[in-house]
Amino acid sequence: MPVLHTPRRDLRLVLVLLAAAALHTVPAAPAAADEPGWTAEPAAGTAAARPGGARPSFYLEGAPAAVLEDRLALTNTTDQERTVTLRGADAYNTADGTLAVRPAAPAPGAAPAPGAGSWFSFGAGATVKVPPRTRAVVPFTVTVPPASAPGDHPAAVIAAEAGREVGVRVHLRVSGPTLAALTVEDVAVRGRGAASVVAYTLVNRGNVALAPELDIRAEGALGEVPGRGPRPVPVELLPGQRVDLTEPWPGAPVLDRVRVTVTVTAPGGARATGAASAWFVPWRAAGWTGLGLLGLGGTALGALFLVRGRRPRRGPADGGADGGPSGTPGAATPAPEHELTGASR
Questions:
Q1: Which of 55, 63, 98, 113 is most deeply packed, by most CB within 10 A?
Q2: What's the whole-model pTM score?
Q3: For position 81, what pLDDT does the model report?
Q4: CATH of domain 38-105+114-174
Q5: Are 140 and 71 in contact (CB under 8 A)?
Q6: For residue 314, what pLDDT band results from cuts at 50, 70 and 90?
Q7: Cβ–Cβ < 8 Å for 183, 272
Q8: Going by DSSP bridges, is the β-strand pair 58-62/164-174 parallel, antiparallel, or unpaired?
Q9: Is residue 18 over pLDDT 50?
Q10: CATH number of the domain at 182-280, please?
């Protein structure tokens, strides 16, 4: 039989459902943190664009005296106007291999860097006002000096506003012969046990950026010691740059004399090696062992002196204590004297 609901019963059911819904309401998501409000990236729609129109960096190449062109996209995601200034900058490696860019103003007393950052021109667009919720596309040029050396000239486009800077990488190459070359220097082993590391310095001697790969081999007194197999180095080594790196070596021996060889290769035929020797000695255990041996030697020496001190003394077999006649202890027996008279005896 179908159930008939009266108006009062229906009202009660609605109230129950509303109360249940209130108890199971999903709490509102917390407000998002304040975003920077604008972005800078290579503009889409060029021949170098990837599928979908996105480009992570600028890729430019030309001969000396060429004028190269590209476009930067600035997107304002806020409800207020943004004023963004643009400039070119040289890129370089810090001591640990991180990529960085030169500041807009050189340090006091330092000459301006003559690198590729000075080749950029934004014309009237060096300062751009971007209206709210608007995307602005800014063209720029890179004028390659006539006497520029061939190879890679790392640079970046820097967009700045109110103390915030955004860098967009520029892979800039001047046409001509290229050389991939590097050296491995200052190889050393530091630490002991699982905390051991192999320290080394990489120097890019060529004119192109390198993506190096590292291989560590170790030879001990008793044969080969486990090293570190081929592995990429998380560094893009720019031309003319020097970086100091370390590689963990958890398989280092406990007791051995080891010769470590570091081999680095990179696309383009770059290859270099460096080596160093190191002793691995468990100094704490060796110290305790030395102290134990020293204590054992001291104990044995003391026992020897004690035994020798208690040994009895023995006199001559024929008599007194001092070699005299048995009747007079301690008296010496005089030697017979001969009378020299000239007469025969």
A1: 55
A2: 0.68
A3: 96
A4: 2.60.40.2310
A5: yes
A6: low
A7: yes
A8: parallel
A9: no
A10: 2.60.40.10
